[in-house]
Design brief:
Elements: E1 7-10, H1 12-20, H2 23-36, E2 45-49, E3 52-59, E4 62-71, E5 79-88, H3 95-112
Parallel strand pairs: 1-5
Antiparallel strand pairs: 2-3, 3-4, 4-5
């Protein structure tokens, strides 16, 4: 079996989102994240803008998104940090969700150093 391309860490808001969605949705989100670690597929992991990416899951006619960013500061492993999740209701990702991911990214790196 191939090694995964990255490891995923969930910040508290992302973990909370996963706690509140239905168990079947949570399983599908985890399965898609797992698959994205091994294969490059924009249906599962897609760049939103700048340094923000989205894990994409479609289940029961609803689009679930978890925003994330890359942390390549560790030589030993590449990390993808999941910031938070939401249900996508429009074609575009709301600017407030992107801004929240950017703020969580900034806080993550400030806390790290």
């Amino acid at each position: 079996m191939f090694d995964p391309r990255f490891k995923v860490l969930f910040l508290e808001p992302a973990a909370h989102f996963l706690d509140i969605v239905h168990a079947k949705v949570r399983e599908k989100i985890y399965a898609n994240i797992y698959k994205s670690r091994y294969a490059t597929d924009p249906e599962l992991l897609k760049k939103v803008r700048d340094d923000i990416w989205e894990f994409r899951t479609h289940y029961g006619g609803i689009q679930y998104r978890i925003l994330a960013f890359w942390d390549n500061t560790t030589i030993a492993e590449t990390l993808v940090i999941a910031t938070h999740g939401f249900i996508k209701k429009t074609d575009k990702i709301p600017k407030k969700e992107i801004n929240r991911a950017i703020a969580l990214r900034r806080h993550y790196f400030q806390s790290k150093y």
